[in-house]
Amino acid sequence: YKNPHYAPGRSTMVHLFEWKWNDIAAECENWLGPHGYGGIQVSPPNENLVIWSKRRPWWERYQPMSYQLTTRSGNEQQFASMVRRCNNAGVRIYVDTVINHMTGTWSENVGTGGNSADFNNFHYPAVPYGRNDFNWPECKIQESDYRCCANRVRNCQLSNLKDLNQGTEHVRQMIVGFMNRFIHMGVAGFRIDAAKHMWPRDLRVIYNRLYNLNTAHGFPAGARPYIFQEVIDLGGEAVSRDEYTPLAAVTDFKFGMELSRAFGGGNQLRYLHNWGPQWGLLAHSDSLVFIDNHDNQRSHGAGGNILTHREPRPYKGAIAFMLAHPYGEPQLMSSFFFHNTEAGPPMDNSGNIISPSFNTDNSCGNGWVCEHRWRQIAQMIQFRNVAAGTTFNNWWDNGSNQIAFCRGGQGFVAFNKDSWDLNATLQTCLPAGRYCDVISGFKRGNCCTGKTITIGNDGRAHISLGANDYDMVIAIHRGEQS
Ligand code: AAO
């Protein structure tokens, strides 16, 4: 369950938060496939409660009404067609799976598929679920429960959402059936929302009943789905990430917190020389890593002090570090702009999501940020793919915030977060030649539109990275020699 099963030569997943299935299919063909992306996390595809009283917030999608595949992102047919088109473009789909709970506190009670439920009687006819399928008696998770009481974290309600009992056979069957439909359609895996709030022993039963990935969609025979479990563990809580790593991969929230601190200014870059488990991060093969996610970029979940697209210079630095460094299975966030943390995606007056538009410089319009299209980010995907399987070597630092490292004869990267210029001749692990910096530009014909770095026969190169340069990174690799 820890292998994402990316197509050969690819890496890195992007969360296309609140995108519509038809738009994702086109993005696979037009951008993600050609740029070497490995996969996409899609927003929950199953029917959710429609919440007009909060002007259709993004979080209504975390309130399941049924397992029918109709949402603002599209219907089942559109979902299936997206999976097929993305797989054909070499890009895998991972489903955000909300199986801990059902909706149940709101005065409104109609879902995106037109179904309804009787919350007071725990009756969800479109699944169907009834009273015996939920933990009983009802209790609500309090902030203090996280420290003391694993039982309450697992058996009480998260945000007042009706808490399913995955220990019952009927609930297991409904969830397994729901997930297996996706595998049949060709998805490569799942994000398990709120995994911390479910018992590992129940999740194990569910995972073990999942089909192998569909060979008709290009997966090898016997491949198990990739599963990454959302467990927020910054230490000191009753529920630990270590209870979940024996099952499948786990989201590592420390990763983004520490890199945000380093690139945001709270910690010196030189300390990153031993980045990885020595920082208290998960073992490499257990971790799904990211800078920000859809929750903490708007102070939900593990909240605060996370770099996002709103601080582009340090954010691009942190992402370049994440993608250049071999540690962890990286995930990127692709956002929409918001002022209000509850606001839903760009939508019209009827609540329909408005598709992104695309500008001639490849950026997006209509309210979409599209971090995955930023040159400095997209071109680091190729860096990671070229450097795959190589070692981490030739670490250099200046004793504060200028650092550099090399990737086994394939790539070299340098960062300057100091308030003075970096001007140094550094040892790389690359063969002699002229390379295009993929951060400040790209290779066009035999020239670089940005900086050119020349590596001598001794493998050394003069690196200059001004304190006031547009970006704090230069990155070169074997795929972009001029
Ligand atoms: C909405 C309304 C609620 C309403 C509810 C029901 O906001 O007022 O009661 O509907 O009608 C999302 C939104 C919620 C939304 C929900 C349903 O974020 O606001 O509720 O949809 O529409 C916990 C969980 C974690 C969860 C996170 C948000 O453990 O699983 O809360 N994330 C996922 C999704 C998320 C979604 C759901 C789950 C629900 O990614 O989008 O919610 O499907 C501690 C614990 C964490 C805990 C946080 C927040 O964290 O460790 O496990 O996350 O508290 O309660 C420091 C600490 C850190 C601590 C943090 C906050 O950073 O180091 O450990 O402070 O105290």
TrEMBL record:
Pfam families xrefs: Alpha-amylase (PF00128), Alpha-amylase_C (PF02806)
InterPro entries: A-amylase/branching_C, A-amylase_C, Alpha_amylase, GH, GH13_cat_dom, Glyco_hydro_b
Residue ranges annotated for the Alpha-amylase C-terminal domain, each copy included: 393-481
Organism name: Chilo suppressalis (Asiatic rice borer moth)
Enzyme Commission identifier(s): 3.2.1.1
Entries under SUPFAM superfamilies matching the protein: (Trans)glycosidases, Glycosyl hydrolase domain
Sequence ranges assigned to domain Glycosyl hydrolase family 13 catalytic in this UniProt record: 11-384
Family, per entry: Belongs to the glycosyl hydrolase 13 family.
Record protein name field: Alpha-amylase
Quaternary context: Monomer.
Principal EC category: hydrolase
Cofactor requirement: chloride; Ca(2+)
Lineage: Eukaryota, Metazoa, Ecdysozoa, Arthropoda, Hexapoda
Reactions accelerated catalytically: Endohydrolysis of (1->4)-alpha-D-glucosidic linkages in polysaccharides containing three or more (1->4)-alpha-linked D-glucose units
Protein keywords: Calcium, Carbohydrate metabolism, Chloride, Disulfide bond, Glycosidase, Hydrolase, Metal-binding, Signal
